[in-house]
Amino acid sequence: MARKQLTKTGICHLAGAGPGDIGLVTLRVKEVMEEADVVVYDALCNPEILKWARADAEVIYAGKRANQHALKQEETNALLVDRTLAGKCVVRLKGGDPFLFGRGGEEAEVLAKAGLAFEIIPGVTSAIAAPAYAGIPVTHREHTAQLTIFTGHEDPTKPESKLDYAQLAANPGTKIMLMGVERLGVIAGELIGHGARADLPVALVRWGTTGRQETLTGTLADIAKKAGEAGFKAPAVCVIGDVVKLRDTLAWFDRRPLHGKRIVVTRTRKQAGALSSRLRALGADVIEIPTIRIEPPKDLKEFGLMVADVHAYDWLIFTSPNGVEAFFEMFFKIRKDAREIGGVRIAAIGPATAAKVREYRLAVDLQPEEFVAESVVAAFKKEGSIEHQRILIARAEGARDVLPEELTKLGAIVDIAVAYRTVPEVEDVSGGQARFREDGADLVTFTSSSTVENFMALKLPMPSGLKTASIGPVTSGTMRGFGLSVDMEAAQYDIPGLVAAICRHYKI
């Protein structure tokens, strides 16, 4: 009876994580990730998907690559059954589509046999997406109306191959091979030996749909040799057929201006997306290394009391979007009506901060032209006397004291509400630090002094030739204090300004 009750609440979502580009992950996957108690993910899943998981979710790596298994398939099956049976919401993330050579069918069978609820969430398969990003349509009215997908990685326990090379060679149209780069020479030789044209065009697309994408072309006769000479390794999709010729005309992804540039983003996990997505749209290979995370202030009670009394102030100043979010999260815990904020006027540093204020349907009364504390002071001077006016500044713990000190000199009565803290990010959930150590980078971006301080605290090896980009002069000062050069500095101190500075540097 108890088991029957548990199976009603537990569910396992067998979810396709797509081919690599996080933009190709379905909305349904994002929904279940946000609900998940347990996430079990594979090696080829984009680790950025993990940032959608709750902070308290159990995240388990079950990665599988050739001859390297974090968990054996039987162990993964048992894990899915155990957690689902315990009444958990489980998300099993599988690269590409779970039912296309992903052993999703086997895992679904195990769950069904155990009497457990499950859902299949299809994903975009690399078999279609990787060629598309390389400019190769797998079907084309003038070239082929047939598509064959097969795996080059067969069950090693079977004494004979299940591949019918004679049929594969005879089949017209495009052939897509997944998971077979290591056996490319053998497979190409078998196809030729069974009648396939030796001059048939072939393309290998490695890390398709990501900023690491590489494409190598050749023919069935020479592709294995070319791959060996180039050190071309898995993960890669192999496309065989005349449609490969269309790449010369249709290649688009690797022609974007920042393609081939590896750029590090050091913002918090929650905030990294705004900068990362802009850089990816320009073709960059983005490595997210969150160096800080946002946490509530140490004294929540004191912050709450100051928020509750906001109606007694003349001005409320926000210095960042984080401060706005923290303030109104607390405000609506205390107050039920936005009108209880009273007649306080609002000042905001920077367009992103102002935009965040407007999300709460409130107007911004003062926004300086430049996005630093000194400009706020100058803007207040233009407003007229602020002597004896009460001003509340909602900001981060440990922020610069320039603003409160200068406003106090002008005669204002200034209180500081510590809305949040920035603390070092100690976990490398996305694997960004490991990638940086292994592959290095061309550029690292900094969006605040705290990102600089905490990035340097990681003591990562700095590759030769590494460039740096700063969001503004305050951040640049911190960088120089750590002995870093400032190769690019935003003229407008926000994310669009930072991206513009990077584009200027690379002459885009």
Describe the structure in your own words.
The protein is of the alpha/beta class. The chain folds into four domains: 9-124, Tetrapyrrole methylase, N-terminal domain (Cobalt-precorrin-4 Transmethylase, domain 1), CATH 3.40.1010.10; 128-255, Methyltransferase, Cobalt-precorrin-4 Transmethylase, Domain 2; 262-291 and 425-505, 3-Layer(aba) Sandwich (Rossmann fold), CATH 3.40.50; 296-421, 3-Layer(aba) Sandwich (Rossmann fold). It is built from 19 helices and 22 strands. It has a five-stranded parallel sheet with strand order 3-2-6-1-7, with helices on both faces. β10 (201-206) and β11 (214-219) form a beta hairpin. α11 (300-308) crosses α12 (321-334), α12 packs parallel to α13 and α17 (449-457) runs parallel beside α18. The longest helix has 14 residues, at 321-334. The radius of gyration is 27 Å and the shape is elongated. The termini are far apart. The relative contact order is 0.09. Residues 1-8 have low confidence and may be disordered.
